[in-house]
Known about the structure:
The structure holds 2 protein chains of 2 kinds.
Chain A: E1 3-6, H1 10-22, E2 29-32, H2 33-38, E3 46-49, H3 53-66, H4 69-79, H5 86-100, H6 113-133, E4 137-140, E5 143-148, H7 155-165, E6 171-175, E7 180-184, E8 189-193, H8 205-221, H9 229-235, H10 238-241, H11 245-248
Parallel strand pairs in A: 1-2, 1-3, 5-6
Antiparallel strand pairs in A: 4-5, 6-7, 7-8
Chain B: H1 6-15, E1 48-49, E2 55-56, E3 58-62, H2 89-101, E4 107-111, H3 118-135, E5 141-145, H4 152-161, E6 164-166, H5 174-180, H6 186-209, E7 221-227, H7 234-247, E8 252-257, H8 275-290, H9 295-298, H10 312-319, E9 326-327, H11 333-336, H12 344-353, H13 361-366, H14 371-374, E10 378-380, E11 383-384, H15 392-400
Parallel strand pairs in B: 3-4, 4-5, 5-6, 6-7, 7-8, 9-10
Antiparallel strand pairs in B: 1-2, 10-11
Helix pairs in contact in B: 2-3, 3-4, 4-6, 7-8
Iron/sulfur cluster (SF4) is lined by residues 67, 69, 71, 74, 76-77, 113-114 of chain B.
Amino acid sequence: MARYAYEGDFEGFLCALVASLENGDGQPEFVRDSDAAEAGLFSGELCQVPAVREVTLAFRSRFVAAVSREAFATARYAFHSGKKGIEQLLWRYLLLGLEQGRLLEGMLTVEPVWSINRIARHVSHEAHKFKGFVRFREVTEGFLYASIEPEADVLPLIAPHFVGRVGDRPWMIHDLRRRQAAVFDLRSWRLVSGIELTAEPGCSDAERDYAALWQRYFRHHAITERHNPKLQQKHVPLRYRKHLVEFTGP
Amino acid sequence: MFSLPLEQRLEVLADSAKYDVSCSSSGSSRAGKAGALGSTAASGICHSWSADGRCISLLKILLTNACIYDCAYCLNRRSNDIPRAAFTPDEVVALTMNFYRRNYIEGLFLSTGVLRSADYTMEQLIAVARRLREVERFNGYIHLKLVPGADPLLVARAGRYADRLSINIELPSSRSLALLAPDKPRESVIAPMRQVSGLIVESRADRKESRKAPRFAPAGQSTQLIVGATPESDREIITLSEGLYRSLELKRVYYSAFIPVSSDNRLPALPTPPLLREHRLYQADWLLRFYGFAAHELLDEAHPNLDMRFDPKSDWALRNLQLFPVEVNRADYEVLLRVPGVGVRSARRIVQARRGTRLGEVELRKLGVVLKRARYFLTAGGRYLGGIRLDGPQLIERLLAPARRPARLDQLELFAALPDLSAVSGEL
Lengths: 250, 428
Ligand code: SF4
């Protein structure tokens, strides 16, 4: 049994998976390089695999040709759940796909397809929610900042959406849980890790006014005769509310 | 009307707009432009949910709540004694841009009371939309209300800027409209709908020829019907909706349970808004749009109103027991869709999964098919999933059993509260 350490993201993981295939390992194990250090694993016991764009792309083409674009997207979303053991599950899923080809898509009740689909659905649901739940605030003239704490690692999945949407200001979306941020400089965006706040971000004058107007609008949108906080809570669970300005107001 | 400070006018004009239940930001798919603000997502995006559980997607406000008309069901009617306010076009533009940039909203839904004349009022709405698009380069979602009786040229102009247009029929029959909205002859509502429908078809064809052809309301048009203010049966309402979907290609018909917004003696005194009935109408509407049902299958002379005890699909199935049970490994997709409790998503998964595996009860559960109701209408591998065979009345008893408690509204998924994410979000 060999252990492969991969560089943090999905690309890195696929490179490690390709390496394990090339070595013909029947039962590889995968660890994130950051976790490997924490777990006190020595480099001697580990096969360090660098992330190489071309390797990822080649694997992607191979898998898409064998199965489908959707099945590949499913794997990517499932990876971003960040669940413990997701790598092992994905390894089985991707291999099964290469072996079974298009049949994989019909194997909805078979493991690991069932689990991978379920996990991917969960992540995609949360990613969709966060397209709505990101709240930018203007911290200094013209610069927008948003903090989020999603359960899954949805930031890389939603950042391109915001690049297409808020293209006229530089911004940062900060995942506090994972200490990473998507940063947009009016031209392109990138993911930066190890970001921590040293102080509570500031707030421009206009910011206070518009946040207050939005809070008022939010209160008045509700129709009293239809009062239904349970339904509201189903859609906006309490854990999300901390970062939603309309729920933090007076 | 401009004397109140902006924040108070925002409250007044949001209050006046909120009874329009349309909230959807779907149906338009437009990528962002480099350096500009805004894009649209085909599925629509909800940004928050207010205390009534309704989704907030668009900034829904009136330009003014002053009105020269006197429609009985409307909060803004001339004879109602409420504070009046108005925004300047600049104020609406600034609110939209700043809310949008902070990702509070998907765009703007702008409606208004009627000032001076229909044409004058329509021009005001268009001015806001034009400024957003041409001066601010705003590329997000815009839903504009059409003013009944406005010049067709103005209607045509509105659709150049808006993603969606709507004009509310409000009252399902012309008789009701005449009684409660004497200023609005039916034709002034239907004519613009017909015009919009024609222009949408035309622009779609033009854009097939050339991508440069101008868009016209790419997210289509919608309307709203008020339920419970007048005596129409559900059959009249659903038949009207069917006609609107089929002949005018409406994207959505919204149903709004009548809430007495202060006493007008032309209207019934309702203790509570008929929310359950509204919910059943949405379910029936869903069956028309995504499940291949026709209005006359759901409601007829003998059953002019929807059963409040069950969803309309169960009700239909109970009246057509001779068609059941169906075999889950063989039945066509269209047939599966007619099984109570089987939604679009479940039916799709069944069809996909049975290519590779023979489906039994265990597999169905794994696919996420909820068998609570469906089991009485299905066989799997020849085995009836409902246990002992039941006749009609016994089956009704079974289907009702878990819901002995009176249907509780807080458990209902009010479809009006959701954007039309896609066909699959309204499972029946
Ligand atoms: S014309 Fe419109 S705003 Fe005026 S009273 Fe009638 S429904 Fe209300």
